Amino acid sequence: MSERKAIECWLSDMDGVLVHEGHPVPGADEFIAKLRATGRRFLVLTNNSIYTPRDLSVRLRAAGLDIPPESIWTSALATAAFLSSQRPEGSAYVIGEAGLTTALHQAGYVLTDLDPDYVVLGETRTYSFTSITRAIRLIENGARFIATNPDPVGPSNEGSLPACGAVAALITKATGVEPYFVGKPNPMMMRSALNRIDAHSESTAMIGDRMDTDIVCGMEAGLHTILVLTGVMQKDQIDRYPFRPSHVAASIADLIDLV
């Protein structure tokens, strides 16, 4: 790690790094506390577009982690920032929850099904066949297709749920139009997070638990990448990938002294 500039800013995935199945990973509270005590700029990243940063902050506090809303960066916020940079004060037909609609409203977007500039697909607890049909017809009529994240399934207490990537595939099959995914593993997610905290890639670390999203995304954005083994990845799986993290740690607890 000495070959790079000292780490001044930190980006961290949420699920599998800071929390696991609704409970804080041991050491996560100390890691966040040290970031805040030392004044290090940081963001917690998530591909989940359902919740607003305030919603997530309250949920994390209930789990024992004190992370303010301004330190949370979602795929919904990244999508809103991207669209605002591409077509300021545009219009969109949105399939999603408050996290996505709030972010787009705050970016100055009009939400409408009348000749919108974009169809924006996010996560929702209940995908409506009527809404999906409307999205298909709008895309057929020329609306550009954007999706917050490519995750095909999401977890629930009952088992897997179809997520944004799966519904996007349905719409693509019907229209022949591929969406532009903004969330991880698109390095756009990292770049927008870096811009949010005025950070530079060469002095920023990305902590994640997935090689195929967090680590490849951080690598392509030029960040120092740290894989923790408290999520879905096991150490013996790393060599299956054609790229490697800069550093592997058992858990977030092992990174406290690096802050």
Automatic annotation (TrEMBL):
For this UniProt entry, the molecular function terms from Gene Ontology, in alphabetical order, are:
hydrolase activity
> Has UniProt tagged this entry with the keyword Hydrolase?
yes
Q: Which UniProt keywords apply?
A: Hydrolase
Q: Which domain of life is it from?
A: Bacteria
Q: Please name the InterPro entries in this protein's record.
A: HAD-like_sf, HAD-SF_hydro_IIA, HAD_sf
Q: Does the keyword Hydrolase apply?
A: yes
> In which family does this protein belong, per the annotation?
Belongs to the HAD-like hydrolase superfamily.
Which named protein is this?
HAD-IIA family hydrolase
